[in-house]
Amino acid sequence: MSLCPPGWLKTPMGNSYAGQLRTTRFEEVLHNSIEASLRSNIVVPRPIFSQLYLEAEQPLAAHTSRAENDDEDEEDGSESNSPPLLYQMKPPPEGCCTTDGFCQAGRDLRLSSLASDPLDILPGFMLVGLKSPSLPDNLLVCAVDHRFLPDERGHNALLGFSGNCMGCGEKGFRYFTDFANHVNLKLSTQPKKQKHLKYHLHRNNQGALVKGAAICWRGHDGRIRQIGPRLLEGHVTSDEQSSNLLLLQPSHTPANYTASHTNGLPQIADTPHPLTNGHNAIPPIPQPAMNHSGPGRPSTTGTQTNVGPPKKRHKGWSPELASNVVSENTVKMPPSSSTLLTSTAHSSTTNGARLDAATPMSSSQRSSTTLSPSGLSVAVPDQLLRTCGLQPVIFKGHGPLPRLTGNVSEVLVSSLLQSCYLSSQTLPRVYQHYGPSPIQPLSTEMQILLTVYYLVQLGPDQVPLIEDLEQIFMRSWRESHLSEIRQNQQPQTPGSQGRHYGIETPPTLPGLPQHLSLPYQQPLTPSQLPWLAQLAASSCGVGVVVFGEHVGSLAQGLQLMFCKLLEGGFQNTNYVVIIVTVSGQETQSCVIVTGKHQCRALAESMFSPSEGLREINHQLSSGETQELIQFCNSLGQEGDMDSLLDSATLDSNEPSPLSSSQESTDDKSVKKTHSPKDSHSPKERVLATKETCSEYSVEWREVRPIQLAVARKLLSHVCAIADSSTQNLDLVSFDRVNFLILVPPSEVTFQQTVLHLWSSGVLQELGSLDQECASQRDAERFVVKMDQSAQVQIDTLIQEAHSNSYTLYILIHDHAHWDISSASYCNSESGLGLVDQLLNSRRVRDAPNILILHVTSFPFALQTQFTRISPYNEIHWPSSFSNDVDLYHERTRYFGVSELLDSTRSGGSLPLMRYDSSFESMAASLEERFPKLHSAVIRTTVLIHHYCIALMAVSGRLSGSHNLHKHSSVETLGIVQSLLSAAQQCPTRHGHMVLLRIPSLALAAWAHRRLSRVRKQLGLEEKFEIILGNPGQPLNIGQSFVDQIKIWLKIQEADWVPRTYLELEALPCILILSGAEPLGESLPRSLKYCDLRVISCSYLQRTTLEQELGLAAYLLKAESRSPHNPGPGSDLLESDAEKLSSTDNEEEEGQDNGKNSPPSSNLPVQSSPDIGAKSTASTQNNISPKAPKSTKASTPSPSQTQTQLAAQSTSQAFLYPQPSFHHLSQSQSQTYVQAQQVPSQNHPVSQINLQSYFHQVSHPQLQPPLPPAQSRRHPSKSTSSGSLSPRASSPHLNCSWARGVSRPPSVLLPRSLYDIITANDGSGLPRCTSFLPHMSVAWVSSFRPLLSKMMTCTEQSLYYRQWTVPRPYHMDSSNRTEGRSDNFHPRRLLLSGPPQVGKTGAYLHFLGILSRMLIRLMEVDIYNEEEINLNAREDGVQYSTSNVLWPDPEIMKTLSFDYTVHDPKYDDISFVYCPGYKPVSDGNTMRQEDVCLRRRTTRIKLSKYAAFNTYHHCEHCHLYLGFNPRYQIYESSLHVFTFTHLRLGEEIQLYFIIPKSKEHYFSFNQPGGQVEGMRLPLSTDRSPDSIKSPIFTPTTGRHEHGLFNLYHAMDGVSHLHILVVKEYEMAVYKKYWPNHILLVMPAIFNAAGIGAAHFLIKELSYHNLELERSRRLEGGAPAVDVWPFVILADDSCVMWNAVDLNVHTGPVEHAVSLKQVLQHMEACPDLSHYGLCGMRKWSSRVLTAPNQREPFSRGHLHDFLLLNVDRSQNVQYDQNRFTCHDVDFTLRLHSAGLLVCRFNNFSVMKKQIAIGGYRTFIIKTKMTDVPTSVGPSQYICAPDSKHLFLATPAQLLLEKYLQHTSYKLFPLSTKNYEHPVLSVDCYINLGPEVTVCFVSSRPHSVNICTKGLLFSGLLLCFADTFVTPSFLKNFTFLKGATLCVISEDRSSLRQTVGRLELEEEWRFRLSDEFQTANAKEDRPLFFLTGKHI
Known about the structure:
Elements: H1 6-9, H2 26-39, H3 64-67, H4 70-76, H5 111-114, E1 125-131, E2 139-145, E3 163-165, H6 176-182, H7 193-196, E4 197-203, E5 209-214, H8 221-232, H9 238-248, E6 275-277, E7 280-282, H10 325-330, E8 377-380, H11 384-388, E9 393-396, E10 403-406, E11 412-414, H12 416-424, H13 444-457, H14 466-480, H15 482-488, H16 528-537, E12 544-547, H17 554-566, E13 575-580, E14 588-593, H18 596-605, H19 609-621, H20 626-633, H21 641-646, H22 657-661, H23 682-688, H24 705-723, E15 736-743, H25 747-760, H26 762-765, E16 783-785, H27 790-803, E17 807-814, H28 834-839, H29 842-846, E18 850-856, E19 874-876, E20 881-882, E21 885-886, E22 892-895, H30 897-903, E23 913-915, H31 917-929, H32 935-955, H33 970-982, E24 993-997, H34 1001-1017, E25 1025-1029, H35 1039-1049, E26 1069-1073, E27 1087-1091, H36 1102-1109, E28 1114-1117, H37 1142-1145, H38 1169-1177, H39 1198-1215, H40 1226-1236, H41 1250-1256, H42 1268-1273, H43 1277-1280, H44 1285-1289, H45 1296-1300, E29 1306-1309, H46 1311-1318, E30 1337-1339, H47 1353-1363, E31 1364-1366, E32 1388-1392, H48 1399-1417, ...
């Protein structure tokens, strides 16, 4: 008979229907299936639904009718064939180009025009030819992201569009419609990329851009569009699975073993591993395959499974995933073991807390849990637990559950399944916006059927998991409404940021039949449900029983279930499903769990963690565990364990076998005649040892580079808060930092944080704290345990914060996921809720100087919809490596959870994370024997029993100890053997740590007592320490071990004791870590084994699992790269942070994580080398004569040897449980067995029978281990490449500890957790990542997508923020009701990173650099330079009175004018000639380019009267922050102000931008009308609250850094401040300074210098003065009384100082406000007599100079000027000048006879600002905008020559040329002060080597006496009519002196030469005419040079 019935493979017509939707009626298919099942001899019938739906193979002809419109329908998701609607193009913006072939910017896009042009293409983009209907003969060139284009087969095009315009260069078009508008396609239909993107473009051999291949938009769409969605979701039939499984799946990946038969046998997928229980092997229950391939049937190839992206744009999909769809999704996931149908939490609410009746029901509870109609009840039989040995769990399903009566205490009832049903039937809001919709939730019948299918697929040891069932429901629902979901799948969730995580179809989920719930299926009817459910259940025998055919009610079904349960009918049944389908009523159901293992697991999961611990304590205290302990103590034929221990005696004269065999060579010289009890202390032993361990070093106190990087990221986020417009943090107002670190109530964690704090040096760095910390004890006041004592310290800090507003307080909440309970839900005794009570209090929240930093490795519970932390304030720990490149150059490498998972996938080495099958078998058998005891009690008892037996067996002190090994497991024996032998290999007895994690305090205390007693009886008290890690108690270490640690750490303090686990480095010990969860304790690097075999398997949240695994996190030495290198499919949990953060590094978040990389060849092959040696040494045939007598036997027979080999290889298999055997193919299994066998001459491994080896796996037996010394002499081959390879690579390492720091610890897990953690979900991530993140949160909806493997940490945060909500007892649950729009606390940060990675060191360093930054913010770099050329000062008349307040004009006229420039910034300019002066040249002149580099600055702390830039925020000067939404919205208006300037001969049009709040400073012709001018006060006005002079500040390029905030400088008084900006900078200055008045210069001045700005200010001010006088005259007031002064201030003036003359101490300088300075100067009685006033520039040495003490002087003024625009009306600034304009203006002002006065008692401090300013000039060419290095000689050229033209103003080129080359132009003037160059009417810098003599040609001007002075040159710059030949004849020149005449053009140049008759005395040549290197349109300047005759 054929094994594959014909009806299963062929239709009646012989065509393959697999994958085709058949027209056969449902009943006919059902009948045919049942008939085929009866005729077939296959045990597993084929599920009926697989016959109803398609498979991947479909003929293309079936879809030709749709092929024409596929492209159009694909984009919008519509299946309609209706005619296209008319499309109206969006009208182009006004003024845009609309010409065909051109973009809206007017750039040509035609291929014919761009063929030879160089085009700049961004990476990842391709040039594409765009077809325009209006240009049929041409193509338009555009650049499109290749991901949105199909490949050569027409596949893998991401929906949507991303393109750039190749004409104007505009980038970032995200919609093709927008792009079509931009390139002027002018379409009448909806633009679609499939229609218009036609051809690829490429360059031919000549480099021309030509049309290439057509873009393949249609490929194989006809077939793929139909099957694509299902294949993408993982719909591959078992034919495809079986044919492709081994190809798609790496051999080392844990997946399902599929036996590949070639003899026509059906393929059975997902065969469970044979279950071992003691010595009996349970045969596997066959699971149904999804399909069976018959001979000749072609299976679908893998090419069609890679169908590309989803059909709607979804940012969560990456093109890189396309190649992994097959490998990730088509392989069915292995069934995970021992997972729970509780959503991982305690049992009070849905998905994790206990539901209404989730505990054993007492009689008082019976009535309260009644949910059924009155009269229906079910009696629970008596003695149910004793009779059946289990406590059934009833899951309520659909319909009311009957009331239970009788023995209800032995039945558990849970509503979790019912809640899952209800959640899966509640459609999300996104599908409720469309009115009547075809989208409907899953029907009741489909939910029940899917539940049955899920239960059928569970293994006999598995417990159902609600997450799996929920995902199955969601997958079935999505596939049922695939097209509708895609139409409605748009981002709808408000507040979702970044990538949208909407509803998407997940890949294959475990437990979901591949053939269920495809589109267009016929609805299930209630009558069909029982048949289908029973048919599905029949595939697993009696594992799942369905009551449905003859059950009329749930009560009847429950009664029937109880009867059969008592009769023993459910011995092999794990689940009973009751289905009630009565006509006219709703379908009802419930599920009863009857499997013993499942009932126990579910019952324990219904307790909360605290309730579970109380139950354990009760069982221990009540004596219920005595029978278990006695049972474990019995060793069968070997007797009782306690009696063996009591009989243990030690020979005082003979060392024990352990000590003698492990004695090192050096130790043998020390004769040991004492017993261990009488032996020397470790301190004496170490001192007596000649050698010391040179390899020991403690490095955990160092700060690593990555910690510095994280600290800087924290600082940048704090600065971002301060820089934001919300004013939530004013960093400038703080001058110091104080902090408090909050840690969980663990004494070790507390002391550990104190140790880190003290050793970090932070307390010494923050020296401004009130008290100095003299010792580590003093540092404890900065760390607080979150217990009841924390209230006082936090209250003290809050009070200090309120009283010290200038101190920034940082509250660091470390291990922040520990206490997130709401204070209102917790009592004071529990110790929970303190964080909510203290940190979330209003006093802390509203304090502006308190910043909160949450630090955690598991931030998920703080990332909910109501979180208080903004996503922008999250800092994620970066990865140290990117593409295997070390980014931080660290000496260590982090080994975390991801690497542990990778070690389970590498097929060539022992996985670091594994389970102990021997231990699991014994624990399972005892759980069945003691059903009333908690599993934690049983597992802990078994584990400690194993450790005790191992100590007895390894110690060698018991006779017959060689027989004890069979009572322990191989793993435990190896751990103990390694622990005892490690210290013997190091001369100073360094060893390693073994961690036992026992959550229950009571069990941990019992384990500590038990192990200590065994250790003492065996005399091993000096070999290793046993430490009880109780969170509430300090460490307790034996004194001898303390002395040993003090010697290692070189500690001299007599009373020192270790207080942290870190200080136990290299101490051989067993640490029993207790507590419900780890509380942040760091473990030393000597940790070698992390034994988690007894941790709870009941609470499956992501946080719970990851923090237990985080105990094994490790920092390896950088040399050992292997453990970090992730293997294929590296599943990176968020807590390992393998991807960079986005808030800070979003550009790397999409990087691949080595999915396709080969497995690492250098992974740690053996974390415990001694175990491997010992385990295999017993396989040697030669037995040492020193071995115990019982081990000596005659040479075994061949059969006996073969049996021993098989048994020993079995123990190797448990040490190396690499891939489980059901995960490997047959050949792989054979290879694996061969690798694990020990070579033997008599019995080669190849002769060992595979089946016998499988049988031997369940009978682990060990030979007694030989002494390690002998093991080292005879290493077996199986360990040479495994355990001994690290030693071989480092042969000099004798210390076991030194070898261990390069290897991460091994982790032992319960089998159930191991299966969960190592299994992947459909997205490729570990299944634990899809669990509920924390018990205090809940999922928003069942309709959520899975986490994606490509998500970064930032995206995972956004995922949890969108899909989780806090439960009522979560502290954030109240955050939604506090009335804020965003609910984010503005000063709250979250730092997340992997466990044990160094977060404490990072945030401690952050405190240090934050303190330094605050000090830095309070200081600025002030120019501190002495005045130059002081030796040239003439000893003339000085101001006689030094303490006079104001200058007297008459006295000032008697003072000589100081022509010499003393400002240090002009150190490189020409000296101004003055008779009687003699400059002293130092011969070290500097060029101007070097001046800024060498100028001296001093750091000065800002005073309270300083001017600030835009980064300053405080509530006092908020008027300068107009963009702050908290305050009024500052509206401003644009006004035009026009006036005529006679010199320019044209009107000047200026623009004023005036805020509404500043309009009172101006006069308008009408309210809101045109500006008539600025209002000016009268000279007689006196007001202490205002400044009369308008302040003008010219600025460019300093919108952020300019010091325009004068609020503090003015001390809050009213003043008019106007910023003078260039037109192109108007918008940016308005953005940053919205409450400032802006004066916008005309566009012609965009390239002008500072001279133009001052020119416009002065002319505007004078014109406004005249207008104001006219207005005053019209009003009857005298015109002369209008205030004529304005202030010209530089944008870098930061502070002002005044000098007080003290008779006793001399002059003292102190900071004053600008208000005080200006009011003093404005109050000068005779101020109107002065044309210009100013002050000196500050210098720290000026007061010590004797010649600087006169109060007033006449000379040059700079930077801060008080200008009298009335008296100086005839002296203008030169609007063309770029440099030295103020020197030129002052000289001309003085020559006009106006008084210039400098107030020397005032000084201005100038801040060094490296950005912007008028002194920043860029010389660039016309060819490119990139600055080029152009020498000064290229600034000029001969007229009409071919020269490189420069895009620089002509005046600037001329000034720079004269500055740098005038020593060549005026050779007689070089370093010749006595013969200067005569400069008429202007001062131009000719360089420091040339002296300039300034004279004015104006009549009645004041000039120096030049009689008898011979000039070496003449400079005539734009000579006007005042310069005449007779004027020039007054001066005498040297023979050969140089003449330079400068004019605007060649014509005026010649006219000037002729008018001044220069040819009479000067000789000219044609070659002496030059022009600036400007193009003609840029109006170059011309100059002519000549020589004096």
